[in-house]
Amino acid sequence: MKFIDEARIEVIAGSGGNGCASFCREKFRPFGGPDGGDGGKGGSIWAIADRNVNTLVDYRYSKMHRAKDGESGRGSDCYGKGADDIYLRMPVGTLIIDEVNGDIIADMTEHGQTELLALGGEGGWGNIHFKTSTNRAPRQKTEGKEGMRRELRLELKVLADVGLLGMPNAGKSTFITAVSNAKPKIADYPFTTLHPNLGVVRVSHEKSFVIADIPGLIEGAAEGAGLGHQFLRHLQRTGLLLHIVDLAPFEDAADPVKEAKALVKELKKYDEALVDKPRWLVLNKLDVIPEAERAKRVKDFVKKFGFKGPVFEISALSHEGTQELVNAIYMHLEQVKHSEQRAEETQMTEEARGISSIDPDDPRFKILD
């Protein structure tokens, strides 16, 4: 299936049915009074996150979604039937934005999460509601309210624990193939990867994490150059970035240090938060470098690049060093998870202490006799 991570749609909720102005005409009831029923409620449109949906391709070709109107009321106290709601299933990680004012309507981050996109109109009142002691034959009725109408932009940000970052042909697709169940296209030319690939990395039978590979970035990506600029948003949800660098480029004129610095610069232009994320340096393609030159080349690169974080040396093609990197990633993710859990528990404890520290002598909490 073709990966689609952005779409524009229009949602139109149903309008409410009109109320009815009617009077009872039964035999032996000459003054039966008003009996006009209310109109039914228009159908609303909801979004529901579904982990079984992986792309927005359905919304690329189906742009308008309209709910039915509610039925109008009728005589004999018959109320109009309300219209059924419509549920639009979207991938987990979809961001729903109002196209007119740019407001974020919903961020679908959990399976089963349901958010209202367009509210259906309320049904109108029949004349039965306007009966009073002084107005026994009301002819008033109200019309149903119009349903909400919205133009929306859907953006899919894949939910992954780890994101791969690198220039074209750095070996990202080879790496994700080596460590996960993903099978992206691999070739010896730039921009082989045309859409993000997700892979599940299994450390053991019960231990795993998700890794995302996006198309390679080039200088000027933040302004729209190349392909990767379309998918930089997918790195915003990841907890760890792996900056993969090709230490043995095909072109002798290519400078790995210059390319690595240019890539970090593009990240900063796109989103400052991406630069602040935990980022590890992964030096790839060591299998094509003579063993006698590896240590010096790695040392020179790290020194010129000025990188202070963790550095890993691998060969994605021969799987050299990949298992050590996978184990380190999993340990890091577990530490972050435990830290967040401890912080949450601490916050709950402090809130509980705040509730229990109420002064019984405070006049605001005195019980009146």
TrEMBL record:
It comes from the Bacteria. Its cofactor is Mg(2+). Residues 160-334 form the OBG-type G domain. The keyword Protein transport does not apply. Its EC number is 3.6.5.-. Keywords: Cytoplasm, GTP-binding, Hydrolase, Magnesium, Metal-binding, Nucleotide-binding. GO terms for biological process: ribosome biogenesis. CDD domains: Obg. It is found in: Cytoplasm. GO terms for molecular function: GTP binding; GTPase activity; magnesium ion binding; ribosome binding. GO terms for cellular component: cytoplasm. GTP binds at residues 166-173, 191-195, 213-216, 284-287, 315-317. Mg(2+) binds at residues 173, 193. SUPFAM superfamilies: Obg GTP-binding protein N-terminal domain, P-loop containing nucleoside triphosphate hydrolases. Residues 1-159 form the Obg domain. It is an enzyme of class 3 (hydrolase). The keyword Glycoprotein does not apply. It holds the Pfam family MMR_HSR1. An essential GTPase which binds GTP, GDP and possibly (p)ppGpp with moderate affinity, with high nucleotide exchange rates and a fairly low GTP hydrolysis rate. Plays a role in control of the cell cycle, stress response, ribosome biogenesis and in those bacteria that undergo differentiation, in morphogenesis control. HAMAP family: GTPase_Obg. Belongs to the TRAFAC class OBG-HflX-like GTPase superfamily. OBG GTPase family. Monomer. This is GTPase Obg. It comes from Pseudoduganella aquatica.
